[in-house]
Amino acid sequence: MGHHHHDEPILQDPKRRRRASIILWALLAPVGALALVMVIALWPQGNYDKFALSGSTDTTGGAVMATGTVTRSVFQDCPSSQGLEDVGGKVLECTVTYVMPDDGGAEIQLEIPQETLQSREARAGDSLRYLDLSKVGSNSGTDFVFVDFVRTFPMALLAIAYGLVVVLVAGWRGARAMIGLVGGIAFMIVFMVPALLEGGNPIVVGLTGSTAIMFVALYFAHGLNAKTSTALLGTLFGLGVTAGLALWLTDAAALTGAHDEAAMTLSTVAPQISLPGLLICGVLIGGMGVLNDVTITQSATVWELAESAPKASATELFLRGMRIGRDHIASTVYTIAFAYAGAALPVLAIAALSNQGFGTTLSSGEMAEEVIRILIGSIGLVLAIPVTTAIAVLVVKATGTGGAHGKSLGGSGRRAALSANHSHE
Prior knowledge:
The chain crosses the membrane at residues 22-43, 153-172, 179-197, 203-221, 230-249, 269-291, 329-354, 374-396. Residues 403-425 are annotated as: Disordered. It comes from Glutamicibacter soli. By secondary structure, this protein is α+β, with helices and mostly antiparallel strands. The chain has 2 domains: 14-44 and 165-424, no CATH class; 61-149, CATH 2.40.50.140. Helix content is 63%, strand content 9%. Strands 3-2-1-4-5 form a 5-stranded antiparallel β-sheet, with no helix packed on it. The longest helix has 46 residues, at 152-197. The protein is elongated, with a radius of gyration of 28 Å. 28% of the residues are buried. The model is unreliable at 1-11, 55-60 and 402-425 (pLDDT under 50).
């Protein structure tokens, strides 16, 4: 009798429900309108060099990036050392991978770096990406240079499997969440990235883009209702805290954002981009998903508690909600920290082999940026939980609930439950 389905509407007094919705929309509408205006104002005009990096695959004036399929691998004379005998050198032996170009033509030879082969050998049927220097000549002694494995098919297969699992388990709501996810990523690619490349303020672009994505994604996935509006308010609060902390710590901790190859490349080909600002924007985008998760859960939790105990006071509801929220905080903090620790294992292994110690390693360069990113995101997440819980309690008390007994009432039963609600007032 105490159980009910999330998709069923909770019985509420229509007048109080409308009043609560008006209050929520009075708070959210200005933020949504401002986000829309800012998206229009910041919309990229394409005023940047879209081919600034073409030189990376055309440095000698005619090199072509191509793909092909591995046919076999043979240990033989390295193509890059052939001809060295003529100048007194020695021909070296290595693993040579034979590849059939996807565009047709004769089989070619590729030398794959030994460190790559130690991790994963090239097998017959593998798809590779390589640089074709045959039309321009090469100083390396070979006309074809290995670039990377082509992973499109397994990644696409995994993405489809992920979508199917989500839809099968979560149903239509899961499907809407997947559509929202794809839409959010598309919005980042179409709006946020070009706006940053045009030299837009990364903090403004990050806050505008994150707010717009959250408005659309939350309402699309969870419906236009008071629970979602409550979660959205909590999410926006968390994003604000995250942005403020990121802005302060980027300067206080002297974070430059210039510690990986991609950032250094950007600083060269797109000097109008602020790397520290880009770091802040990345922190905001990274915090969106986790904030959305905890705020939606807390909002739904308060409604569930109010449904099962309609006579509970606001203080009681808040304390009960926070008991669940504290568990959620602990599990989410573990998730964020361990996810990064897993990705950073090679760096931690290097620290173990040096005499610098883990403290020095964690506080230097790229590692420091990631650690601070985790801490900032976690603080925004932790503070969003009590704020969301408090907002949810205020809204649920202003709205009124019908109690768990009304979960499957039809016609007359629903009217009776509503009458009971009026009598409690």
